[in-house]
Amino acid sequence: MRELGEILEEVRGKIAAAAKRSGRSPDGVEIVAVTKTHGADVVKEAWDAGLAIVGENKVQEAAWKKPASVSGPSWHLIGHLQGNKVRHALNLFDFIHSVDTVKLADRIETIAESIGASPHILLEVNVSGEKSKSGMKPEEVEPAVRHIMESCPRITLEGFMTMAPFSENPEDSRPYFRRLRELRDELEKKLSIGLPRLSMGMSGDYEVAVEEGATWVRLGTVLFGERPKVKAVRAASDEGDFSGGGLDSYSGAGPTFKVLD
Predict the structure, then answer these.
(1) Which residues on neighbouring strands pair with residue 122, listed in sequence order?
(2) Burial call 61-80: b when 16+ CB within 10 Å, e when fewer
(3) Segments making up each domain of the chain, as ranges
(4) pLDDT digits (tens, 9 = 90+) for 60-97
(5) Among 197, 45, 185, 54, which residue's Cα sits nearest to residue 121?
(6) Distance CA 256, CA 171 (A)
(7) Residue 230, φ and ψ in degrees, nearest 5
(8) Structure pTM?
(9) Per mean pLDDT, which range of 3-7, 117-121, 254-258 is the poorest?
(10) 79 and which of 57, 97, 133, 152 could share a cystine (Cβ 3.0–4.6 Å)?
(11) What is the distance between the alpha carbons of residues 244 and 246, in angstroms, rounded to a whole number?
(12) What superfamily in CATH does domain 4-224 come from?
């Protein structure tokens, strides 16, 4: 099995080449190491290899994994965030990529005010219109940005996130990534604001995403291989008790908990 350092060198080379093709500096692209279903040991491996950002899909997984992991990485929530998990998310994550409604932004603002947090977020945009995906419609984004600017003083909005429809051909993702960048550029100019972050591109299409302006690419399988199989789990109490119990959730990686505000 190949060492992560070797894999990472190859991936960074591809990112640099993609950036060069679009006239960009590779320094403007960072890797979000997606450790979903992997254990805390993989977080340490990523950190030791020089990956400074960890991406998790679920609040309840980060709730056990982060305390068990090496200190140092910045933790980003890249999966769907339910309103009843906002408090825990703000305590666990440095950045939330997946704010998909104004209602959720308001919830984040309310909880942030109550705990003295200053969250950094991206708005998730469903550029493709797929019903199976979360995210705002493109036409909903400008009103949402205006609302956050006017009514959510604790929130720092830094840009947008999207997922392209699955395809074996990375080129099929290009129009969706391009549309997100164009939307960002339009709103920066129209509203006279800076939205420097674009989170787009995963293991199968990250080179195209970089060519189209991604500043964060979310990479899991290409770095760490196929995800471990999920085992049966016993949830913790509704009060969000993280103190123990529960079966191993991912090949012995750790417990999964039910997390509520």
Answers:
(1) 159
(2) bbbbbbeebeeebebbbbbb
(3) 4-224
(4) 999 999 999 999 999 999 999 999 999 999 999 999 99
(5) 197
(6) 36
(7) -85, 135
(8) 0.89
(9) 254-258
(10) 57
(11) 7
(12) Alanine racemase (3.20.20.10)
